[in-house]
Amino acid sequence: MTSIDRAEVEKLYETLRKVQEPKGYYFNKDKEKVFELLEGLILNRQRYGYMCCPCRLSANDRAKDKDIICPCVYSLPDIKEYGSCYCNLYVSPEWNEEKIPHVYVPERRPPEKMPF
Known about the structure:
Helices cover 42% and strands 3% of the residues. By secondary structure, the protein is mostly helical. Strands 1-2 form a two-stranded antiparallel sheet. Helix 1 (6-20) packs across helix 2.
């Protein structure tokens, strides 16, 4: 397995934070969990050429996976309803501040989009 350089993860963290926060996507306050998920995004970018969700299986086809390119199309509805996206990478400020319960986020991706 490829080892991901910590500096590369930190650079992606800062880049995504600056781009996504104005859109309402906030990283989970558990930075180690976030870094593990960002490593998955980097690995997926190396494998497939795009950063699909590290918490979902890729079809290795950008067109088929366009709904799960991070942040996926399911993340905003998940954050709105549960305070967190499926993998807990992006969360609401209330989730981070523990003002709302941390509950299981069910899979919204339709079965017909699954690559198996």
